């Protein structure tokens, strides 16, 4: 019997018996979308061994630069999309930073001007992270021009790095809320650990261990922080000027 199935995703006619479309990879026997199917798709996107968020988080924890290098080299079906990961973690991090602000931060101990600036930075935290993403990628690309990567490939690297950093921020904010008295000490320790992880990530991505490369990365970290703070200050003063 001639059995033909049309893929609902790419419209290809499949003549041989398959469970998944050999052209786009979508399951062929999909029925009408329902709540059970929606939950199932969500669960697979999180836990899938090859493409799920948990798989990406695990590998970014100890081989972040190698993951980004594999992705730009063409192994894109193996990992959850880095740009989707960045958007997801930024959204979740914003929720936790607002919870931290509401439950663990005492604005009465901060002078009025700095208090308003900090509230503004927290409120638009996600916007500032996404604004810094292309700038961050540009800085890395410029400092490592001799390594034959293009700007978009560095945007992919910074999507991985920024997304995973958001995850570390989420963990940090949870710890801050649980132990607000240790906020200062934990902030320093977490900042140092993230910086070390960041250095390792770029060294892995560019497959180098040279002292010059480490120095470049430290300069990138410094410039990124300065530019980020400058953007926050500039937009805050512009915002207050418009409001007034």
From TrEMBL:
<protein>
    <recommendedName>
        <fullName>DUF3667 domain-containing protein</fullName>
    </recommendedName>
</protein>
<feature type="transmembrane region" description="Helical">
    <location>
        <begin position="157"/>
        <end position="179"/>
    </location>
</feature>
<feature type="transmembrane region" description="Helical">
    <location>
        <begin position="218"/>
        <end position="239"/>
    </location>
</feature>
<dbReference type="InterPro" id="IPR022134">
    <property type="entry name" value="DUF3667"/>
</dbReference>
<feature type="transmembrane region" description="Helical">
    <location>
        <begin position="79"/>
        <end position="98"/>
    </location>
</feature>
<feature type="transmembrane region" description="Helical">
    <location>
        <begin position="185"/>
        <end position="206"/>
    </location>
</feature>
<keyword id="KW-0472">Membrane</keyword>
<dbReference type="Pfam" id="PF12412">
    <property type="entry name" value="DUF3667"/>
</dbReference>
<feature type="transmembrane region" description="Helical">
    <location>
        <begin position="124"/>
        <end position="145"/>
    </location>
</feature>
<keyword id="KW-0812">Transmembrane</keyword>
<keyword id="KW-1133">Transmembrane helix</keyword>
């Amino acid at each position: 019997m001639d059995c033909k199935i049309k893929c609902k995703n790419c419209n290809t006619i499949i003549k041989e018996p398959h469970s998944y479309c050999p052209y786009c990879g979508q399951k062929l026997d999909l029925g009408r979308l329902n709540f059970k199917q929606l939950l199932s798709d969500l669960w697979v996107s999180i836990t899938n061994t090859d493409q799920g968020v948990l798989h990406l988080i695990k590998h970014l924890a100890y081989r972040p630069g190698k993951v980004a290098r594999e992705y730009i080299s063409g192994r894109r079906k193996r990992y959850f999309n880095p740009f989707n990961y960045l958007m997801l973690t930024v959204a979740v991090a914003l929720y936790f930073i607002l919870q931290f602000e509401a439950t663990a931060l005492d604005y009465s101990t901060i002078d009025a001007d700095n208090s308003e600036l900090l509230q503004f930075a927290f409120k638009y935290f996600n916007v500032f992270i996404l604004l810094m993403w292309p700038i961050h990628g540009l800085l890395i690309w410029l400092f490592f021009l001799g390594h034959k990567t293009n700007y978009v490939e560095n945007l992919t690297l910074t999507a991985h790095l920024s997304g995973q950093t958001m995850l570390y921020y989420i963990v940090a904010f949870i710890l801050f809320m649980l132990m607000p008295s240790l906020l200062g000490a934990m902030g320093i320790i977490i900042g140092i650990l993230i910086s070390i992880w960041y250095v390792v990530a770029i060294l892995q991505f560019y497959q180098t261990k040279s002292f010059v490369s480490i120095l470049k990365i430290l300069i990138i970290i410094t410039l990124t922080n300065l530019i980020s703070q400058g953007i926050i200050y500039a937009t805050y003063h512009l915002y207050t000027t418009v409001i007034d």
